[in-house]
């Protein structure tokens, strides 16, 4: 890749802070069906960022009287979500793509997606609003359900265990159990636990197990347990709602990336691979400024200790291009956020159709980086 980062910064920063789901919806409505306009063959894509609601999870939420809870009325099903650092709460409508991994398979094949790595839907906000006794019961059921799907379709689906910050000891044990019993090779954790190094250190028992198991951990946008210190709070936007929501989201993502990439927290866990969604928010833009102020270590090289996935930002083509230029395409894992996102085509076509990403960049993002990571866990991409 060869283009001017400063010019890119000036032209593209507003696009990067747009609200993720509306952007995804708009692009889904006008995206071409073809995966890549430049002829790139996307066959063999590995999608590292996708979500699912399991049967036991929904049954558990149906019995709750307060958010998060499942409501069924007039043929509609939706989860009432709590207000927390990620937003004011609302209704998350449950559709077939959210709950039926079996029916996804023809759609995945149609779009050249060979494998999806499935995790629970962290932004629903379990850790922020439910006691540990309930979160652990819910996630134990989710993990058991997901294991059944992975057992049935081992060549299509891989699972990341649902982990909670409400009971760190339980999460450490659950990560070990799902490695041992189900062949899972990692887990997912709410991002806001990593807003500060102090908060991250509360999760050390999970990372100690992850180091022993050489786990892969997905750090997904979401509020952690109130017991985790240093978390941001949600500030209701008085004006410019979409821009201010984007500002808060990207600031939270960048804070997690700074903790995990630039602090010494990961030094003790060299065999743990860490994936941060939404390209780490502002972090590609901040990297150049960080480098000017820190002469003791190369911040780019330190941030390269983690992987970034675009998630809903996959449709923000220039953001993916900048992340690849900043950190290298070998540190980007393709992620669609399918489930919450309505379609795979926009995520694939925007990256595949980039004129700034080389064919080798696209190969690495779609499948090459995944092949190396999956081989580490004895899995064929």
Short overview:
The protein has 381 residues and is α/β, with parallel strands linked by helices. It has helices spanning 5-16, 20-30, 55-62, 96-99, 101-110, 126-129, 132-152, 168-182, 197-201, 204-213, 241-262, 283-293, 299-303, 317-327, 345-352, 359-376, and strands at residues 45-51, 69-73, 76-81, 90-93, 113-119, 157-159, 161-162, 186-190, 216-220, 273-276, 307-308. Helix 1 packs across helix 14 (317-327), helix 7 runs parallel beside helix 8 and helix 8 runs parallel beside helix 10.
Mean pLDDT: 89
Question: Would you report the number of β strands?
Answer: 11
What fold name goes in the CATH topology slot? TIM Barrel
Describe the sheet with the most strands: 5 strands, parallel
Which percent range fits the helix content?
40-55%
Quaternary state of the chains:
single chain
Q: Kindly estimate the percentage of residues that lie in beta strands according to DSSP.
A: 5-15%
Order of helices and strands: HHEHEEEHHEHHEEHEHHEHEHHEHHH
CATH architecture classification name: Alpha-Beta Barrel
Low-pLDDT segments, ≥5 res: 2-40
Principal-axes geometry comes out as globular
Tally of separate helices: 16
CATH class label = Alpha Beta
Strand order of the largest sheet: 7-8-9-10-11
How many structural domains can be distinguished in the coordinates? 1
State the distance separating the first and last CA atoms. 26 Å
